[in-house]
Design a protein that fits this description.
Layout (H helix, E strand, L loop, with lengths): L39 E4 L1 H8 L11 H15 L8 E9 L10 E8 L2 E3 L7 E4 L3
Parallel strand pairs: 1-2
Antiparallel strand pairs: 2-3, 3-4, 3-5
């Protein structure tokens, strides 16, 4: 007769402990970052009078107001120094020259963050070149 020894009895295995949690869970931002505020665009009286005389043919067959405002918004989005701008005031619609008679066509614009001016590198209004 073979000698059969019963297998040793072990206490039942304890369930595995869940991994320890860090003392402070990683912080998550309460809200995702807010998108940049919309740019409010206004026109000076002289700029409004001048653009009102322009035709769509002079603005790539678009409404002159819309064409100018799209250029101003695009420039603001493409210029890091203007990322925080909340307001733009078009001071002069698209024109060549100015204080520099050889300057290419541009729109003269003042940008602000709240009530604070954001000066151009030349310390004043910005020139938004139209590329024409």
């Amino acid at each position: 007769m073979p000698n059969h020894t019963p297998p040793p009895t072990h206490p039942p295995a304890k369930p595995a402990k869940p991994p320890a949690q860090p003392a402070h869970p990683p912080t998550q931002p309460a809200h995702p970052p807010a998108p940049a505020p919309a740019l409010a665009i206004a026109w000076t009286g002289p700029a409004e009078a001048a653009v009102s005389k322009m035709t769509p043919a002079e603005c790539d067959d678009e409404d002159p107001h819309k064409w100018h405002e799209e250029k101003v918004r695009h420039f603001q989005k493409a210029t890091p120094a203007l990322a925080s701008a909340t307001k733009a005031r078009i001071r002069a619609p698209a024109h060549k020259g100015g204080s520099d008679a050889t300057e290419p066509e541009h729109i003269t614009v003042s940008y602000k963050q709240g009530n604070k001016d954001i000066d151009s590198p030349k310390k004043g209004a910005w020139h938004v070149y139209t590329g024409r």
